[in-house]
Write a structure and sequence with these properties.
This protein has one helix and eight strands. It is mainly beta. The chain has a single domain, classed as Porin (Beta Barrel). The chain has an eight-stranded antiparallel barrel.
């Protein structure tokens, strides 16, 4: 029995150490904006902000899995536009504060190992699933109050090793919500229409640090 416990603990420690060698943690933040019934097309409209931690596990030089949690603010007003769809309601404004948690898969276009060789860089794409917890809907007028909802994040970015431990990057993501009341306005197409849901976008930068390094930290060991 004691040997079984020892073997189990040894395996757990080995997995943890291996995960630490292939992972990094950091902070991501920047701007945010909304697109939906009030703003169908304008980029970087009425920008807000987002900030939060990010954890990345690097399977190999091409693929990574990451967890991200951000606090964000997104706002808008139908007074900024002149669309018939919004004029069916009294004037609606919103200033939503929320927390979005997501899991995403990254694909590097170039072979890249985080925190190994200073100067290495790659563009990348990512996608996954997330969930938003509304902290304050901030909807005024006769709008519909938004609630918790699923999201589908995807985007593109570029990252680079600044040193043998420190990495940084820029990225731009869209988050498709499974919700048509994020902006306080329901489309006449109906809330159940997949293509009628609201969106919000995050753009900014991240910086991450690799706390654990080993002699085996080289591409040959991936």
């Amino acid at each position: 029995m004691r040997y079984s416990v020892f073997i189990f603990l040894f395996l757990v420690v080995s997995v943890v150490l291996h995960a630490q060698r292939k992972s990094d943690i950091g902070l991501i933040g920047g701007g945010s904006y909304y697109q939906g019934d009030i703003n169908p097309a304008k980029l970087f409209y009425s920008p807000g902000y987002h900030i939060g931690p990010i954890f990345r596990y690097n399977f190999n030089s091409r693929y990574s899995m990451r967890l991200k949690a951000v606090y964000a603010s997104v706002k808008g007003s139908d007074a900024d536009f002149n669309y018939e769809i919004t004029k069916r309601y009294d004037p609606v404004t919103f200033n939503n504060q929320f927390v979005n948690i997501s899991g995403q898969v990254e694909y590097n276009f170039f072979a890249y190992n985080s925190g190994v060789t200073a100067g290495d860089w790659t563009p990348y794409i990512f996608g996954g699933l997330g969930y938003t917890f509304m902290l304050s809907s901030g909807v005024t007028g006769s709008g519909i109050t938004s609630g918790r909802h699923l999201t589908m994040p995807f985007g593109i970015g570029a990252k680079m090793n600044l040193t043998r431990r420190l990495s940084a990057g820029l990225e731009w993501s869209y988050n498709k919500t499974f919700n048509d009341s994020f902006d306080g306005v329901l489309s006449p197409l109906g809330e159940t229409k997949f293509y009628n849901n609201d969106w919000y976008s995050f753009f900014g930068l991240f910086i991450s640090y690799k706390f654990f390094k080993f002699a085996a930290d080289c591409p040959a060991y991936d």
